[in-house]
Amino acid sequence: MTGAGTPLRHPLAVYVHWPFCAQKCPYCDFNSHVRHGGIDEPRFLAAYLAEIDHTAERLRHTAPDGEASAPHQGSRVVTSVFFGGGTPSLMSPATVAAILDRISAHWSITPDAEITLEANPSSVEAARFRLYRATGVNRVSLGVQSLHDHELRRLGRLHDAAEARAAIAVAARTFDRTSFDLIYARPGQTTDQWRAELGEALALAGGHLSLYQLTIEPETPFAALHAAGKLVIPDPDAALALYEVTQEMTAAAGLDAYEISNHARPGEESRHNLAYWRYGEYAGIGAGAHGRLVIGGRRHATVTEKSPEAWLERVEAAGQGLTDLTPLTPAEEADEMLLMGLRLVEGLDLDRLEAVTGARPSDAEIADLVGLGLVERVGAAGPAGGVTQAFADRSSEIAACVSPGAGGRDEWGDVTGPAPATGATAPVPSPVVRATGQGRFVLNEIVRRLSRTLVSRRS
């Protein structure tokens, strides 16, 4: 552990992927697998520990700025660990403890590090949660998805609404920090129905909620049903109305949006996910895990083998399961920073974008997107606005990029006021930009437009 006053020179987040589930949900495209015959958990644990060892060795002798470093002296300092999946609550507490012990053997862990475990209500037992807490887990994220039994059955969930409510209560009694997920914009869902369900969720919630609009992901059972016309999700106008209800009710309850799909009381934001969105450094451990590691002063993308058994064999043969370790170009870094940073209510600081990548998008392109109501400058002058008609009236090119099911996971609906009249003296533009609520529906296209105007400032 680092001392309370120790400066964090090279903060690191660690993501541990547990790829197994009791059942595969029809909407899910995550790297999750069902093994009805069970798995050899001790064998998998040995592989997790070996991959942590290998990652630590890769980072051991060079700090991100290229300087030499010894363990716990200028090397990475872990600020968060996230057990994701899959269903990590299917792991034994002893496995979780061993993984955390191995992480702490290689890197300093801050005293206030956030240690999150994802869980499904169907796998919740009070005694098991207490054991997770004893290992060092201090935050749990529950995959509730709905508080109605018939919707849970349609979503392919194994738990019922009563189990979900009980799991939320057990988590609240056991952990200092809790969160749970809900999916809305489901087939046939009305704003009145969502108001009632969200109201109950807010009454149950602690300091954090993740609220996702249902999206149709390729190569999932829901995608096949959608293509056949057997599953119809709300159209963009209906989805926007559901979104507006979400923003209104969460804000009134004190859980303001801070990212596309995430709402929290002040200080309850997911620190681990903020490391992604703020383009920090994170190690990915386990089958199908991704990472971003700065090695010798250059950011690298890491990807591990997706198949759990193939990953296991790779690690046993070579000590790691990587299928890709690629240094990113400044242009690739810029695209990633744009995509991640624009998700946040705090926005993306273009000065930092330039410092990291050596480039920034043109002011003219940003101004055009502001005029369309898709992007705003945080802190810029002008009245706070509601939803405008600019998206419908002036952005047909971008609107055409919205695919079935893509209109989800937007965050806030406020947009900037009109641009200053010709000849007016405009204030110095804020260097921080973010997508508006409408812009969230077409974020990939916004990134494409900004990316094509990037101007390099590096020699």
Quickly list its features.
alpha/beta, three-stranded antiparallel beta sheet, 459 residues, 2 domains, globular, 37% helix, nine-stranded mixed beta sheet, disordered N terminus, 17 helices, single chain, 19 strands, TIM Barrel, 21% strand
Question: What is the compact description of this entry?
Answer:
The protein has 459 residues and is an alpha/beta fold. The protein has two domains: 11-277, Aldolase class I (TIM Barrel, Alpha-Beta Barrel); 359-456, no CATH class. The chain has helices at residues 41-60, 93-106, 126-135, 149-154, 161-174, 191-204, 221-227, 236-252, 271-277, 308-318, 330-341, 350-357, 363-371, 390-394, 396-399, 437-440, 443-451; strands at residues 11-18, 20-21, 33-34, 77-85, 108-119, 139-145, 177-184, 208-213, 256-259, 262-264, 282-285, 290-295, 298-304, 322-327, 348-349, 359-360, 375-377, 432-435, 455-456.
Describe the structure.
Helix 3 (126-135) packs parallel to helix 5, helix 6 runs parallel beside helix 8 and helix 11 (330-341) packs antiparallel against helix 17. With 459 residues, this protein is α/β, with parallel strands linked by helices. Strand 9 and strand 10 form a beta hairpin. The chain has helices spanning 41-60, 93-106, 126-135, 149-154, 161-174, 191-204, 221-227, 236-252, 271-277, 308-318, 330-341, 350-357, 363-371, 390-394, 396-399, 437-440, 443-451, and strands at 11-18, 20-21, 33-34, 77-85, 108-119, 139-145, 177-184, 208-213, 256-259, 262-264, 282-285, 290-295, 298-304, 322-327, 348-349, 359-360, 375-377, 432-435, 455-456. The chain contains 17 helices and 19 strands. Helix content is 37%, strand content 21%. The two termini are 41 Å apart. The protein has 2 domains: 11-277, Alpha-Beta Barrel (TIM Barrel), CATH 3.20.20.70; 359-456, no CATH class. 45% of the residues are buried.
